[in-house]
Write a structure and sequence with these properties.
The chain has 3 helices and no strands. It has a domain of 46 residues. By secondary structure, it is mainly α.
């Protein structure tokens, strides 16, 4: 168990942006990471709401057409 806790993970840095990120202070790094997570969540929720509303409208339209045909 102790050997797992002391293990250091190394990540290959492939771009200048990654190097700048890892050389920045931990506070800045944490703020950037949290901002990126929040932006992704906002984008996902907007896209999700758009598809849910349009899919719901289409299904509702199809059901109305089916019931009008059955009458």
């Amino acid at each position: 168990m102790k050997s797992d806790e002391n293990r250091i993970l190394f990540k290959e840095i492939k771009s200048y942006e990654e190097a700048y990120f890892y050389n920045s202070s931990p506070e800045e790094r944490n703020n950037k990471h949290l901002n990126n997570i929040n932006n992704v969540k906002k984008k996902d929720s907007k896209i999700k709401r758009f598809f849910e509303s349009s899919a719901g409208d289409m299904i509702e339209g199809v059901i109305e057409i089916l019931f009008s045909i059955l009458d």
